[in-house]
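Bench log. Compound arrived from synthesis this morning; before running ITC I wanted a structural hypothesis for how iron/sulfur cluster sits in the protein. Inputs:
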Amino acid sequence: MGNPRVEVDQDMCVGSANCVEVAKGAFKLNDEDKAEVDDPTAVSIEDLREAEEQCPVAAILVEEDE
Ligand code: SF4
């Protein structure tokens, strides 16, 4: 299995920072309080999935390579 593909939709993100808390190191807030992907390999795929689920506006997309 390769690295997961992780994206944050900057237009949808409301800066709640759930993802930053749930998957520490994988996401960071930028100067505009929008989440950006930092290092997706910093956490497990389960944590990435959890961040995806915890986002209140479903701005996070996580896709695993097969
Ligand atoms: S959980 Fe969703 S809305 Fe909140 S900062 Fe992360 S991407 Fe943005």
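What the model suggests: DSSP finds two helices and four strands in the chain. The pocket of iron/sulfur cluster is lined by residues 8, 13-19, 27, 35, 55-57, 59-60 (CB under 6 Å).
ITC booked for Thursday regardless.
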